[in-house]
Amino acid sequence: MRLDGKRVLLTGGTRGIGRGLALALARAGARLVTCYRDDQDAAKVMAAELEELGDHRVVRADVTDAGDVARLVQECVTHMGGLDVLVSNAGTISHVPFEDLTAAEWQRVLDTNLTAMYRLVQQALPLLPAGASVIGVGSRSAFVGIPQRAHYTAAKAGMVGLVRSLAKELGPRGIRVNLVSPGVIDPGDGTLPEPVRRRYEGLTALGRLGTPEEVAGAVLFLAGDASSYVTGETIHVDGGI
Ligand code: NDP
Q: Where is the signal peptide (predicted)?
């Protein structure tokens, strides 16, 4: 699934799933602008890894800040001369019993996972040509519900509706909009607690957790021309959880 010549904006590409997506997109021949919010050390490592693969950019931009997102989109114009693929991956999770869920925490999680995609697509839309592909990274939890994650699952379920509606609204312009819905993914950096791994492995049909590279497989498919007649869809990458 080559993406030669495609210009990609990927949010949250310095750690976890996003890091795997960034490397896979660059290896497939795409040019890339990606962003992070806090972890400058991870960003430096990522920038060095991407430099080996071509002319890519890693910039600091908070997807909850409209000004930062405008700057990020402008960076795509300056660096790549436009945009063909948008991947809204940056997200955040927290575990809070519903009784203790403050309005501020509800808002923070919705803003980072759901509103960020609205902000990103709206700001990038004037740049997107016919044939462009917009991809959101959702979550399996939106489809099953998870205790103590009402805010997170609501945000990710919102992305399903956002993608379906945008697919219909932007389809006449030749722009496709889809969602990739990961199950439990091991970032591969040793940070996943062993009890968590064991618990979730047992829930999957394949008996193991997924990898960022396996999420990237679905993103590469949706980013490229192999999926030219796929829009409004969710691809589950969850090992049959
Ligand atoms: P990580 O926490 O490992 O990495 C998140 C990335 O997004 C980092 O690069 C981080 O930058 C960046 N980021 C976070 N908040 C912002 C922000 N406000 N503005 C800009 N960048 C930001 O996340 P995961 O890899 O675990 O998750 C990636 C996506 O996949 C998320 O949308 C998540 O909900 C989804 N997902 C993850 C699953 C999993 O098992 N990991 C399962 C299902 C869905 P920095 O380091 O600087 O904060």
A: none
